[in-house]
Amino acid sequence: MNKLLEVKNLEGGYSNVKILNGIDLHVNEGEFVTIIGPNGCGKSTFLKVLFGLATHHNGTVLHGNEDVSGWRTDKLVNRGIAYVPQIDNVFPSLSVKENLQMGGVNLKTKELTACIERACNMFPDLKERMNDLSASLSGGERQMLAISRALISNPKFLLLDEPTAALSPKYQQEILANIDALRTEGITVLLVEQNARLSLARSDRGYIFSGGKVVYTGSAKSILDDPNIGDYFLGLQ
Ligand SMILES: Nc1ncnc2c1ncn2[C@@H]1O[C@H](COP(=O)(O)OP(=O)(O)OP(=O)(O)O)[C@@H](O)[C@H]1O
Ligand SMILES: [Mg+2]
């Protein structure tokens, strides 16, 4: 299998504050990989360092065969990587449509229209809300909008930070099913999730972080089935 992402001994954090203490992780093309772990262990920081939003200190990040360690966000977007942050992931004072348009400022009108159409097909709830202010959306609808906006750049690799946090069980299932379905469009997924069981049930593999390090990795099934790992980490959800 081809590795789309290979991270070796990654150290990073915020300016000179070190949060990640040597992460080794890879994602194969077409995979759905979930990262879980306790609050404050560096999951979001890891995604931010990968996407050029937090500081890379040491170690290597390979995307395809290219060393993209410490690259700027705009260059990573041009390579087909997109990221949905954990919080503040829509512009509340803009309408749903305007949020989507913001994600496609570089697209021609025709392409943008096609991308907005695709978002509407993926999340029919959004179609009804196109002209509403994003501030008026429910938590689930906001996540749908944030994911749709990330997809407008036509990424091949999607990084998602807790897309189902604080959502109702119905929305949790719907959003994870939609993320899973992206794989049929050739999109590889790396997800951070507190709803560990739900997400691992759809994943190929998982990583457990603790204290800025990987403390366990294996098939999603092995994590779900292991009573020791399961009881300790999955109980956090
Ligand atoms: N902008 C920042 N500047 C300095 N330290 C930060 C910043 N953001 C987060 N941290 C610290 O980095 C550590 C890891 O935080 P991070 O957000 O990566 O954890 P997490 O695993 O995503 O947690 P959660 O499950 O609560 O989302 C925490 O100690 C946090 O206080
Ligand atoms: Mg986080």
Secondary-structure map with pairings?
Layout lengths: L2 E12 L2 E12 L3 E5 L6 H8 L4 E9 L2 E2 L5 H6 L2 E4 L11 H8 L5 H14 L1 H5 L10 H13 L5 E5 L7 H13 L6 E5 L3 H5 L4 E6 L2 E7 H6 L1 H7 L4
The chain binds adenosine-5'-triphosphate and magnesium ion.
Question: How would you describe what is shown here?
Answer:
36% of the residues lie in helices and 28% in strands. With 237 residues, it is of the alpha/beta class. The protein has one domain (3-89, 155-236): P-loop containing nucleotide triphosphate hydrolases (Rossmann fold, 3-Layer(aba) Sandwich). The strands form two sheets. A six-stranded mixed β-sheet has the order 6-7-8-3-9-10, sandwiched between helices. It has a four-stranded antiparallel β-sheet with strand order 2-1-4-5, covered by helices on one side. Strand 4 and strand 5 form a beta hairpin. The longest helix has 14 residues, at 109-122. It is globular. Bound molecules: adenosine-5'-triphosphate and magnesium ion. Magnesium ion (MG) is lined by residues 43-44, 86, 161. Residues 14, 17, 19, 37, 39-45, 86 line the site of adenosine-5'-triphosphate.
